[in-house]
Please model this.
Amino acid sequence: MKGKIVVISGPSGCGKGTVIAKLLDRESNLKLSVSMTTREPRPNECHGREYYFVTKQEFEKRIASGDLLEYTEYNGNYYGTPKTELEKAREQGNDILLDIEIEGAENVRRAGLDNLVTIFLAPPSFEELRKRLILRGTESPEVIERRLARAEKELAEKSKYDYVVINDDLETAVDEVYYIIKNK
Model:
């Protein structure tokens, strides 16, 4: 049986990465879609594991050939989901997780794919989101403010998703997302 496509979106700091990591540990039939990007690899990132790292020319060639399910440009770099790898994994019966932004999720919905489930992961409150971003200690106050401004816009789009899961308690959020994936 062909696998599902599960889109998970939410603002930076809502816990998407942690929830996804726990889901992948829990279910061997669940695979994370590897996105393609034109940005340079960070230390310890590996081509084909975190991203498929390609040149801008290669990415634009993929756009022109229609080989991307969705793509966006962010901070001068392209990011997108290659169709070929996604469909191959689905044909093998795997459910595929896409950790993508609001715009990408909209493009996936427009593609009219079968067996698609969209989940918006939200923080319990805007103040809790601010606290989480500050406690991460990875960004300057200016970057945090930009992320919060973007988060406001993203939170306003959550009603476009099939499900909204509030990440107030990590294990509960993981259980809720897992239930949706397995039963919807």
